């Protein structure tokens, strides 16, 4: 069993941000798995999605139920084999899982950041990750890999530091968000900021948490991560046990309580999320999602935007993922091919929706495993 050990790297020098602001005296939480080879050529950086962290694989000592969020993908003998690669997971700046974020103290003011934490973008995260790699003595990555928002970071790595990336694995991602996706994010944010316990983002000072808003935000998000087929298969129109006992007619129309199993499931997910995720972090990360658009500075021309990328690519999408649909991955593939880049693409017919990138689909795992076999051959050639 792979045992994970959290680490933290402090940075005193200011990090310039895309917004024009900067942040200093911050730290990044990270974990590493496997062994860095002598010439430091086998490093793979994993970029995380919205509510994940640096805990990518393995378990913590003495905690059997602490598997990393991509533990099925990364570890000894797995598609990204830690017997062959040195894997690095980094928690993004502004997150609530160890790296400096809104819950931490601003060294310039001596006060908790709260809503005053600076706006961060995908590009800012990549720059911060590059500083961490510098500190680890890693100049070039064998690969950078991520799913969803993590895939956007992987793509951005190939544009910001093309000389430092040999391969990019972009899973269930997109070159930017559609208007529908931005709309979902905005509704979720409004649920949080209109919660009476939000207090303009300075709820820490009041000793409260805007749990109601966080619950609704998570429920909205979770609906978009699943496909209609999966939701129907798991829940359909089934009523909870309590609703199937006694006089059903009286029950249905006399209560506003949970009646359908899908309602119970969503409330459970929302309650769980509100216990561990920070509201200001949710606002920051969803905004970073909205802002990402490398083609914007090229008049919307994605082909021109991706001309800077020089590495080889693997892109993977899933047929029932309507939040980051295969069409969006194919846009990236076309733009890369227009630039005559080396691109592999797999469109997996899977029923699980956006969450498929986290699950054990045998075809998906084989594609990733085969790709990393080819990456290793290049390293050892």
UniProtKB/TrEMBL annotation:
Domain AB hydrolase-1: 42-359
Cellular compartments per GO CC: cytoplasm
Enzyme Commission (EC) number: 2.3.1.46
EC top class named in words: transferase
Catalytic activity from the UniProt record: L-homoserine + succinyl-CoA = O-succinyl-L-homoserine + CoA
Chief place of localization: cytoplasm
A single GO molecular function term of this UniProt record: homoserine O-acetyltransferase activity
GO biological process: homoserine metabolic process; methionine biosynthetic process
Function: Transfers a succinyl group from succinyl-CoA to L-homoserine, forming succinyl-L-homoserine.
Record's subunit section: Homodimer.
Family statement: Belongs to the AB hydrolase superfamily. MetX family.
Name of the protein described by the UniProt record: Homoserine O-succinyltransferase
Source organism per UniProt: Rhodoferax saidenbachensis
Phylogenetic lineage: Bacteria, Pseudomonadati, Pseudomonadota, Betaproteobacteria, Burkholderiales
